[in-house]
Write a structure and sequence with these properties.
By secondary structure, the chain is an alpha/beta fold. It has nine helices and 13 strands. The chain folds into two domains: about 120 residues, 3-Layer(aba) Sandwich (Cobalt-precorrin-4 Transmethylase, domain 1), CATH 3.40.1010.10; about 150 residues, Tetrapyrrole methylase, C-terminal domain (Methyltransferase, Cobalt-precorrin-4 Transmethylase, Domain 2). The strands form three sheets. A six-stranded mixed β-sheet has the order 6-7-10-8-9-13, with helices on both faces. A five-stranded parallel β-sheet has the order 3-2-4-1-5, with helices on both faces. Strand 6, helix 6 and strand 7 form a beta-alpha-beta unit. Helix 3 crosses helix 4 and helix 6 crosses helix 7. It is elongated and about 60 Å long.
């Protein structure tokens, strides 16, 4: 009887955001695999390192950080063969995945190679999207509003087209693509509604208005959130410039009428907020 393949979401980085179910399964696994850079430690492993046992076999899947897809695909091919060997021997294997396994997760690469041949279970994790929204204190959507999730790696024309059609939006995987994204948002008049978040839930977390970000410093694990707000029934407000383009008067523009939808971290000062402790996970007062 073959072993079971588990995709374990370990969340955005704060160990306290790993689910109880993921930890229960992790502790019982004989084999644990995880993505890692060509050199150095795995981020996903670091999140749950204190829960690993010396008795567990570890498989580091060292993925090259290149623009070409082929080298990474070859690495996942080899990893699937190695993991498949353990599964054939009856050993369960857990694959750690930052965030959620099925939300831009590296686990998808192995799922596509192995799920058809082996029992597979996926344990969801806190995604980067919800972690960034929580870090910024910024509700994303409510009621019948729509959310568009876009990778910043899209071509500039395609990204601009999608943003023109979007209500609320999240732009992921910024890194070297931030200057391109900023150009698009300026053309669409959306910069004043854009919140930038990097390293959500970590001690190095930063939340700030997009205009305050140094484009050269944006890491790959960063995100821009654009919150949809209602100005008049049936209309979405992205700020004065977008309202004018939609025929909404300045007097009815929700961005001018109220600042209540600005992120809590910078609504009063408009400046960057760096996390100085576990602000998102601190104990309630009186506890």
């Amino acid at each position: 009887m073959s072993g079971t393949l588990y995709g374990l979401g370990v969340g955005p980085g704060d160990p306290e955001l790993v689910t109880l179910k993921a930890l229960r399964i992790l502790r019982a696994l004989p084999v644990v695999a995880y993505p890692a850079p060509p050199e150095g430690t795995s981020f996903a492993r670091s999140v749950i390192a204190s829960h690993l046992s010396p008795a567990q076999t570890e498989i580091a899947i060292r993925v090259p950080m290149t623009r070409s897809v082929a080298p990474a695909q070859a690495v996942y091919d080899r990893a699937a063969i190695e993991i498949g060997g353990h599964l054939d021997a009856g050993r369960d294997v857990g694959v750690l995945c930052q965030g959620d396994p099925f939300f831009y997760g590296s686990f998808i690469q192995l799922f596509e190679r192995l799920a058809a041949g082996y029992p597979t279970r996926v344990v969801p994790g806190v995604s980067s999207l919800t972690a960034c929204a929580a870090a910024a204190g910024l509700p994303l959507v409510t009621r019948d509003e729509m959310l568009t999730v876009l990778p910043a790696t899209l071509p500039e024309a395609e990204l601009e087209k999608r943003l023109k059609q979007a209500g609320a939006a999240a732009i992921l995987k910024l890194g070297r693509h931030l200057p391109k994204v900023r150009r698009i948002l300026k053309r669409l008049g959306l910069v004043d509604r854009a919140t930038y978040v990097e390293h959500a839930s970590l001690e190095s977390q930063k939340v700030m208005p997009l205009e305050a970000v140094d484009p050269a410093s944006a890491p790959y694990f960063s995100m821009i959130l654009l919150r949809c707000c209602r100005s008049v029934p049936g209309s979405s407000c992205w700020g004065p410039a977008r309202c004018r383009s939609r025929g909404v008067s300045s007097a009815n523009c929700a961005a001018r009428k109220s600042s209540r939808l600005k992120p809590a971290r910078w609504a009063s000062s408009g400046r960057c907020s760096e996390r100085g402790g576990r602000s998102s996970g601190s104990a309630p007062r009186g506890s």
